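Exercise 7b. Backbone tokens:
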């Protein structure tokens, strides 16, 4: 796992976002597995500052994970990942302040999107699962 960048402003976000490949540009397309910076990439993560994308991080220990595993067409996976990232950083997802991070994972010709929650799930796990389901259902 390697940190690619840190973002503190909207400008930082868009500068980084526009220079990091989309999942469709590097994930396995059923024929070839592409490389980024001379490495094979299995996932991208976007986490709040000082929170690592691992369960051992104190912010994630008491949390939960919501994931969607389905075969997205690659363009739809790109859109889903971007909308999830924007919803998380823009706090437009219900209870978005409780989301510690998100990750998109290469799963052969499809993809898996994951969001990690912190404190909310300690009190009400159903609420976090509901947030993920509502988000997925709102996506065309």
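Sequence design result:
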């Amino acid at each position: 796992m390697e940190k690619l960048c840190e973002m503190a402003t909207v400008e930082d976000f868009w500068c980084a976002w526009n220079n990091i490949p989309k999942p469709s540009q590097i994930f396995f397309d059923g024929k070839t597995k592409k490389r980024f910076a001379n490495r094979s990439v299995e996932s991208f993560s976007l986490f709040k500052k000082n929170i690592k994308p691992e369960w051992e991080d104190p912010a994630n220990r008491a949390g939960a994970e919501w994931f969607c595993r389905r075969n997205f067409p690659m363009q739809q996976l790109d859109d889903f990942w971007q909308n999830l990232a924007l919803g998380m950083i823009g706090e437009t997802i219900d209870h978005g302040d409780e989301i510690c991070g998100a990750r998109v994972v290469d799963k052969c010709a499809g993809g898996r999107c994951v969001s990690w929650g912190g404190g909310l799930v300690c009190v009400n796990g159903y609420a976090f699962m509901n947030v993920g389901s509502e988000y997925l259902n709102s996506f065309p």
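Instructor comment: Strands lie at 35-36, 39-40, 43-47, 64-70, 99-107, 110-117. The chain has one domain: 10-138.
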